[in-house]
Amino acid sequence: MRSLTSLPLLFALLADAATLPFHVHSPNSFLQSRQSSTSTNGTIPVGNTQNSFYYSNITLGGRTISVMLDTGSSDLWVTGSVPSTTNTGKSVTLSYAVGQAKGNINTATFQFGGYTVNDQAFLLVTDTSSFSTNIHAEGYDGLLGLGPNTGSSIYKELDNASGNSPMNRIFQNNASNTNNYITLLLNRQNDPASTNVTGQFTIGEIVPGYEAISNMPQVAIEKVYKLTDQDQHWQVLTDKDKGIIGPDGQPIQADSIVPKAPDGQLVAVFDSGYTLPQVPRDVSDAIYGRVQGAEWSAAYGAWLIPCGQLVNITINIGGNAYPVHPLDASSSDFGVTFANGGTACLGTFQPVTSAFSLLGEYDMILGMAFLRNTYTLINFGSMVSSGSTTAPAYAQLLSTTNWDQAVQDFIAVRQGGQNQIGAAQYALLPAGQEQHSPESAAEKKAHYEEEVLSRWPYILAGCIVFVVLVVGLCVWRCCKRRRARRARAAAQAGASTGGGGGAGRRGGRRVCAAARVAEYGGSGDDACEPRV
Ligand SMILES: *[C@@H]1O[C@H](CO)[C@@H](O)[C@H](O)[C@H]1NC(C)=O
Ligand SMILES: *[C@@H]1O[C@H](CO)[C@@H](O)[C@H](O)[C@H]1NC(C)=O
Ligand SMILES: *[C@@H]1O[C@H](CO)[C@@H](O)[C@H](O)[C@H]1NC(C)=O
Ligand SMILES: *[C@@H]1O[C@H](CO)[C@@H](O)[C@H](O)[C@H]1NC(C)=O
Ligand SMILES: *[C@@H]1O[C@H](CO)[C@@H](O)[C@H](O)[C@H]1NC(C)=O
Ligand SMILES: *[C@@H]1O[C@H](CO)[C@@H](O)[C@H](O)[C@H]1NC(C)=O
């Protein structure tokens, strides 16, 4: 999604750009793939900086560039210079938490995982002055949006197939469409059992050893309304009445803000561009509010809890349980402290704030702290523009977190190797003593607006019915009057139909307002934009 993270401090805290012991794809092997495409395959190593940024190398115009992998947006942008590139003269501005990516749309040869695309459109960001951070120091010099093509601002600006996103270009060029999928495997730093795992990204193939993902249920990608398909993401429904199992082992009850979501289910977006998962405030409170010593931090907009507290959360999707590693449910990566200066860990399932999903298209964003627990496959299906398949897009998830192993890791890392999980200090408070985080006045207002705006299809339909009725009434009254006049056969002054017309225009204006807001939410760079 657009905002890389909602913790401004996070950027400052990230020290060394650690590079994992990757074993494939030197820059040379990328260049080689142009000549002999059989010598490589689509398995691409993924770098990780402090569990907060995941990135891979692409080649653009011959230059190898590390780009953040973002399943929540759909544009490619890079900073610095690109050797063999053509400037289209058209400019675009994309807004992210890190700053504005602004520049001209260029085209160059794009290579990734053994695939080569000529004249790939991308944003060449020449001015990085608005960036709040040195992204290069965090391991990347650009961002590769892996979302649906309809979400691409470049595609919208160029207004034809030449603006298609990189993944779309790779898939639309391919004669076979069954392999139109990507997979993502993220590793976890500071986890003794994850040192063996190398982050991997693949195109059209499965990471060896993870073949079991093919047997996992294909979970349908939930589509947004046609008019707002700029806001389409890789989003799915959680399981009915048990989408999120909380630390007490009970399902956390939360109502969806998505009007068309079935009762008891939430709409969740897979977003590798978000460090912290974003959840409804009540859900975040239910996860952390019963922890002894939990403290709400207004500065971070998140809960702080004692680092030794094991937080047990499971997400259920497609009838399968995906336990969240306790090292992901609270994080020691941010160096946070309680108000009294004591060491704290950050509750990673952060409450969403204002302007979130203003049109009511999703309830939560499953960011990196969730995605580290799954091997994730996304089949683009019919969401490939100019593609050849009509099969619906879907996601498959394979759990990579073994709960018993995860608990052992947690004890080793957070409890000094001594199992204290059952200790009195770590017992949850009774439900009646749950703490709640404060909701600001602005947030209340945004939620209210959201409730109204998210119902725009119904409002639109209502307005159309209203207009039709009013017009019908006018016509009917008109005819009746004319007939009466004719019957009287008197040549008097004509009767007014103004009242009916006025009501019709009022209806029309409401339709307009709803339609304008729908576009607004979808356009890249305004306040209305959800933080995705
Ligand atoms: C494809 O990737 C896998 C996993 O990295 C590797 O073992 C295999 O050798 C690769 N195949 C080719 C042809 O490069
Ligand atoms: C990207 O390429 C550079 C060499 O140009 C290499 O040092 C680095 O490890 C690569 N990064 C990833 C994530 O593969
Ligand atoms: C797309 O539109 C641009 C002008 O915006 C034009 O130069 C280009 O030829 C068009 N490409 C295709 C594939 O239609
Ligand atoms: C492209 O098609 C070939 C077969 O025609 C297939 O082997 C390959 O995996 C496909 N690649 C993608 C990205 O779909
Ligand atoms: C790392 O991999 C090796 C070989 O696959 C395995 O024997 C070892 O148990 C793994 N270590 C961890 C911590 O998983
Ligand atoms: C975590 O929660 C699950 C149920 O959601 C339960 O089966 C498991 O025993 C719990 N583990 C711990 C250590 O609390």
UniProtKB/TrEMBL annotation:
* Pfam families to which the protein is assigned, alphabetical: Asp
Specify the signal sequence span: 1-19
Residues annotated as transmembrane:
456-476
The answer to whether the entry has keyword Secreted is: no
Name the Gene3D superfamilies on file. Answer: Acid Proteases
Fetch the InterPro entries from UniProt: Aspartic_peptidase_A1 (IPR001461), Aspartic_peptidase_AS (IPR001969), Pepsin-like_dom (IPR034164), PEPTIDASE_A1 (IPR033121), Peptidase_aspartic_dom_sf (IPR021109)
Sorted keywords for this record are: Aspartyl protease, Hydrolase, Membrane, Protease, Signal, Transmembrane, Transmembrane helix
Q: Name one GO molecular function term.
A: aspartic-type endopeptidase activity
GO biological process terms held by the UniProt record: proteolysis
Per the record, the domain of life is: Eukaryota
| Domain Peptidase A1: start-end pairs | 54-388
The entry's family comment says: Belongs to the peptidase A1 family.
PANTHER family referenced in this protein's UniProt entry, alphabetically: BETA-SITE APP-CLEAVING ENZYME, ISOFORM A-RELATED
Identify this protein by name: Acid protease
The organism of origin for this protein: Coniophora puteana (strain RWD-64-598) (Brown rot fungus)
